[in-house]
Amino acid sequence: MPSGQPSLSIRPSVAIEIASYYGHVLVGDGKCYGRVGGNHVFETSPYNHLEFQSALFVAASVCPRACAAYRTHNKYRGFEFESGKCRCLFDGGIDFSTVLSDHGGLPDSTLESNTAAGTVTKSIGSDLVRCYKKSQPEAPEAVDKFEYIGFGDCWDSSMA
Question: How far is CA 94 from CA 3, 8, 97, 124, 155, in A?
Fold first, then answer.
């Protein structure tokens, strides 16, 4: 029977990646950056964004739901998570009044002065912000070895 204090040498990772079926891939800590105008190789800029704030935004895994309505927009690039905030990222030059009238949503704030465009290329800055870029969504993997037995708890028939 273990006793005493838990070991501090084993610490949980704070860099857990969101499951791929959410359609986003972790880029890294800090704000998301992309190429200026989408084609300048060495010059980068942050993205324009719609920012949603809520005490319910306690993990990056809630941001794909906050940005889901915009995922099909051709200028949507991903999201940034900061405790209590999800920022849905878009290319520079976006007209948010059109995006919001077409896709809905009531953001707490918007930023339309940045010039990044195209795929997120890197993240820069604080480890308080996490950068995720849009990726091809994948279905969750299938679960094997379980069978339907009716109402009640599920069980693994191979362990019976």
Answer: 58, 47, 9, 22, 50
Q: How far apart are CA 160 and CA 147, in angstroms?
A: 12
Contact partners, residue 72, CB within 8 Å, separation at least 6: none
Beta strands in 47-149 (DSSP E): 48-53, 76-82, 85-90, 109-111, 116-124, 129-134
Unique residue bearing structure tokens 């849009």: 134
133 in helix, strand or coil? strand
Q: In terms of residues, how long is the chain? A: 160
Model confidence, pTM: 0.72
- Model confidence pLDDT, tens digit, residues 63-112: 998 998 999 999 999 999 999 999 999 999 999 999 999 999 999 999 99
Query: Letter for the amino acid at 60?
Result: A
Q: From CA 142, how far away is CA 117, in angstroms rounded? A: 36
